[in-house]
From TrEMBL:
Residue ranges of the region described as Disordered: 255-277
Keyword Repeat: yes
InterPro entries membership: Lectin_gal-bd_dom, Lectin_gal-bd_sf
Signal peptide as annotated in the record: none
UniProt keyword annotations, A-Z: Lectin, Repeat
Source organism of this protein record: Pararge aegeria aegeria
Occurrences of domain SUEL-type lectin (ranges): 41-145, 154-245
A molecular function (GO) term: carbohydrate binding
Tree of life domain: Eukaryota
Ranges annotated as biased composition (Basic and acidic residues): 264-277
Protein known as: Jg716 protein
Length: 277
């Protein structure tokens, strides 16, 4: 028998460094598969960040720089590429770490865990301009992270079918295959078999290989796909936590060709559609 469960991803608080925030993300494998977007804007401009429905902003980089040309500003790239910094005017000026950190805090407070946000790029907002007369830009890199997940549980030899609506793809958060001593009520042991905890260490990677970035996939709760982590006679089970995300959320390597029922729709309609099934 297959069991369904729906839950909301627990918010992760921002501490002093973006790296620490990412370390606290329970499943870094998923974070590593999300596309990184970049925004850069000059001087007094207002920056707007936006993520598709079902995802929220996760700031990766926010920093000040100076640029020799307007081409380094007001740009939006689909994949993050570091922008070279070239100082114009007073080359002796420096950007103090306190100002860089103030920007990081400002961007995180304005945008983290929101679907869309706006913030101002002027360093005057922080009470100081260390490079007067120089062209400035703010560079922000961010990911669109899903926040709501569902789970399916299949007992030994069950088959789990994961699928998503048009324009969306499966994103695996985590997977467990085997047993846990205190969380196996749905798939009880055979009579006389002692309870145990035994888990396949690479169940998440296996599930991602089979399903991540696909519109639909099949996972078999058996030793052929996941191995034999438990004693002979123990009843294993598979628990998969996943979600459906817009195709643009995942890195290009996970992109698949549009299907017949997706070609007829404009991608902009995604903002108003339910991506999950």
């Amino acid at each position: 028998m297959i069991y369904y469960e729906r839950k909301t991803f627990k918010d992760i608080s921002f501490e002093q460094q973006i790296e620490k925030l990412n370390d606290k993300f329970p499943q870094k494998l998923l974070l590593g598969t999300l596309r990184t977007h970049q925004k850069a804007a000059c001087d007094e401009e207002m920056v707007t960040l936006i993520c598709p429905r079902g995802t929220t902003i996760s700031i990766q980089v926010a920093q000040y720089g100076t640029s020799a040309s307007q081409s380094s500003c007001s740009s939006e790239l689909t994949e993050y590429q570091p922008v070279a910094v070239e100082v114009v005017g007073d080359t002796s000026c420096t950007w103090p770490s306190t100002l860089q950190y103030s920007l990081l805090q400002t961007v995180v407070e304005a945008c983290q865990k929101k679907r869309q946000c706006k913030f101002h790029t002027s360093p005057k907002a922080f009470g100081v301009d260390p490079c007067p007369g120089s062209r400035r830009f703010v560079e922000v890199a961010y990911k669109c992270r899903p926040y709501e997940f569902r789970s399916k549980v299949g007992c030994e030899n069950d088959v789990l079918h994961l699928s998503c609506n048009p324009h969306s793809r499966v994103a695996i958060y985590s997977a467990q295959y085997g047993r846990t001593e205190y969380d196996s009520i749905q798939c009880p042991q055979p009579r006389g078999m002692k309870e145990e905890t035994c888990l396949e260490p690479y169940a998440t990677e296996t599930s991602m290989r089979e399903c991540h970035g696909k519109r639909r996939c099949v996972l078999s709760a058996d030793s052929k796909m996941f191995g034999k982590p438990c004693r002979t006679g123990s009843r294993t089970y598979l628990k998969v936590v996943y979600t459906c995300v817009p195709r643009t959320v995942l890195k290009e390597r996970y992109e698949s060709a549009p299907e017949e029922d997706e070609v007829a729709h404009d991608a902009s309609d995604l903002e108003h559609e339910d991506v999950g099934k």
